[in-house]
Automatic annotation (TrEMBL):
This is Sphingomyelin phosphodiesterase. Transmembrane segments: none annotated. Binds 2 Zn(2+) ions per subunit. It comes from Anopheles arabiensis (Mosquito). PROSITE patterns: SAP_B (PS50015). Zn(2+) 2 binds at residues 295, 335, 443, 476. It is found in: Secreted. Its EC number is 3.1.4.12. One of its GO terms (cellular component) is extracellular space. Zn(2+) 1 binds at residues 222, 224, 295, 478. GO terms for molecular function: acid sphingomyelin phosphodiesterase activity; hydrolase activity, acting on glycosyl bonds; metal ion binding. PANTHER family: SPHINGOMYELIN PHOSPHODIESTERASE.
């Protein structure tokens, strides 16, 4: 699941950044207006000036023990309402990039100075809790929990990276064009790429049609099991996770949690987890493999612990073992599995209490029955592995949560991200030489909040091994969607497609779902997929009956593609990017939210639809060429 604005503020300490109202009705946009680059250049001087102004007000507060009227005005004007706490960073519009970067640098810089001038842990903690609460980012208890879980990691990074500036910090976290990253420490590292690849001269084509002998692979993702979920409890609590026992029963029954889940900020009760897995086993007993692509843990990110996470992870993986028997299950980690949430250790860290090894060793033990012994080494090292499924077919399971811009360790040693990517390259090179085809599993879509330099290097690897990589599978966004990759130097050519399995959770405003893929047994390319879901409104009206799962659609049937190759899917994208394809694009959006009543009630304007189309073709934060291209034909 993506990180919310309020989550970032409560957790990051240094990034006391989103201090402006972000109306929940604002649609995201990926288009940059005319004169954008010139505006960004002018903003750089403003950032420096604003940083000095905030620093001055912050110092007065700390020295005098009270805030000036001007500082209070800044905070009051920036405080957000409960309905706005769920706003997500990557969905903020381009028009907000400048103000957000300025505020990040101003307040982030002040906290950096505060610590570097000798502020203790307690002083930093109390200061940030007060700001978090005054800004109404969360209730005080949640602010305290988030900050307490993350403060030691962030202070360690600040103390050991004296050259880390607020400009670099904000550029990494927000990853927008208005926040310029010009620190070579973050940008000047590369994967060592095998030189024997061929230039991209055409889109990758030739995926076979669906056939009777196709393999059947089921993807289950983002279950977000919440052991604290209670039907009837408060679903409108304003926290990152509601419907929990500690939040009580609301006076209005309509605000109570449903039996099978809830469209609001609520995760998945155990009965719904069981039903989904049982339904897959009952309806798709002929599945050859299961891809389980992460995020078992709920969104109660202010009160996780290692013990808490271990219990939930173990319970869910045991349910997979009991339910699917001898059917191989290929698991990967999600960003929520770590404790604190999103934080995966990178680089040469001297504090053993910051280590993520507890999670890697747990995963190695729990996944061992489905994997070869050789996979143990890399799982215990970094939570990733490869397995030869059958002669000629290999799975590579990444732990790309390390590239998440909310993984604070990127700020500590960014070039440490190279390690797993270099391993990916080397495994693909061996697979190429052995004539194998590869499926890559990764929790985070490459386009979704991964650090832009990591995105750049992944694209280089994908282009080099485009003929070896037959398919990619992601989760995280909770949406039934896909991404098309284009060549960096020849963006008219499509080189890969990544499929997203949606989510088992309904958090937020989506129906639970899973996806069944049909895969050619020789090329291992996806020939079609079917998405299955149930309507949560209807399910909750009959709590004593199991939900009525139904097949939402077949991708091949719905869109009438020649095939599901990058070339075939690119043809569909070009069609959707015209007025004639508007109805079809609207249908894509409806399926993307999995026909959820709560989302369909909000509708999606033409500008909203263009944004969803742009999300399909954008896979690097600073490369919007395909989006700009589609916008030129969208309103013709």
């Amino acid at each position: 699941m993506k990180c919310q604005v309020s989550v970032l503020l409560g957790a990051a300490l240094l990034c006391l950044v989103v201090l402006v109202l972000q109306p929940s009705t604002v649609r995201a946009d990926r288009l940059q207006p005319k004169g954008y680059k010139q505006t960004v250049e002018k903003l750089q001087k403003f950032y420096a000036s604003f940083e000095q102004q905030v620093s001055r007000e912050f110092r007065r507060w700390q020295q005098q023990g009270s805030m000036t009227p001007h500082f209070r005005h800044l905070i009051a004007a920036s405080a957000i309402g409960k309905s706005e706490r769920a706003q997500e960073i990557r969905e903020l519009p381009t028009a907000r990039e400048g103000p957000l970067c300025a505020i990040c640098r101003g307040f982030g810089g002040s906290v950096l100075e505060f610590r570097r001038e000798g502020a203790s842990r307690e002083e930093v903690f109390n200061t940030t809790v007060e700001l978090c609460t005054m800004l109404n980012l969360q209730e005080e208890s949640i602010c305290r929990g988030l900050i307490d879980l993350n403060i030691d990691t962030i202070l360690y990074i600040v103390d050991n990276r004296p050259e880390l500036s607020s400009a670099s910090l904000c550029a990494v976290v927000f990853q927008s064009g208005a926040c310029v990253l010009d620190d070579p420490t973050f940008t000047e590292w590369q994967v060592e790429l095998d030189p024997n690849g061929t230039p991209v001269t055409a889109s990758k084509a030739g995926t076979p049609q669906r056939g009777p002998n196709d393999l059947k692979i089921v993807q289950i993702t983002d279950l977000h099991f919440d052991p604290n979920y209670r039907p009837g409890y408060n679903a409108e609590c304003g926290a990152p996770a509601c419907c929990r026992e500690s939040q009580g029963v609301p006076e209005d029954p309509a605000a109570g949690a449903g039996h099978w889940g809830d469209y609001r900020n609520c995760d998945t009760p155990w009965n719904a987890v069981e039903d989904l897995l049982d339904r897959v086993a009952e309806e798709h007993a002929d599945a050859d493999f299961i891809y389980h692509t992460g995020d078992i843990i709920d969104h109660g990110i202010w009160e996780t612990s290692i013990g808490y996470n271990v219990r939930s992870i173990s319970r869910v993986v045991e349910k997979f073992r009991q339910t699917f028997g001898e059917t191989p299950v290929y698991n990967i980690l999600g960003n929520h599995e770590a404790h604190p949430t999103n934080v995966y250790e990178l680089g040469e860290v001297t504090r053993p209490d910051f280590s993520t090894n507890w999670l890697y060793h747990l995963s190695a033990d729990l996944w061992s029955q489905w994997l070869p012994q050789a996979a143990q080494q890399t799982i215990r090292l970094g939570g990733y592995y490869t397995a030869l499924v059958s002669p000629g077919f290999r799975v590579i399971a990444l732990n790309n949560n390390d590239c998440y811009t909310f993984n604070w360790w990127i700020l500590f040693q960014p070039d440490a991200l190279k390690g797993q990517l270099q391993w990916l390259h080397d495994v693909l090179l061996q697979a190429e030489r052995a004539g194998e085809k590869v499926h890559i599993l990764a929790h985070l879509p490459i386009s979704s909040d991964c650090f832009s330099v990591w995105q750049r290097e992944y694209r280089r690897i994908l282009e080099r091994f485009r003929d070896t990589i037959s398919a990619q599978f992601h989760g995280h966004t909770h949406k039934d969607e896909f991404n098309v990759f284009y060549a960096s130097e020849s963006p008219e050519h499509a080189v890969g497609v990544a499929w997203n399995g949606g989510s088992g959770t309904s958090h937020t405003n989506v129906n639970p779902n899973y996806v069944v893929y049909y895969v050619n047994p020789e090329t291992y390319e996806v020939t079609d997929f079917e998405s299955y879901a149930y309507n949560l409104t209807s399910a909750n009206m009959s709590p004593d009956e199991r939900p009525a799962w139904f097949r939402m659609y077949s991708f091949q049937e719905e869109y009438g593609l020649s095939d599901l190759s990058p070339a075939g899917v690119d043809e569909m994208i070009q069609r959707l990017g015209t007025p004639a394809g508007r109805d079809e694009l609207r249908r894509y959006w409806e399926y993307k939210v999995k026909l959820a009543d709560a989302s369909l009630a909000t509708d999606c304007t033409d500008e909203c639809l263009l944004n969803h189309l742009c999300e399909i073709v954008t896979n690097q934060a600073d490369d919007l060429r395909k989006c700009q291209e589609l916008s030129e034909t969208f309103f013709d």
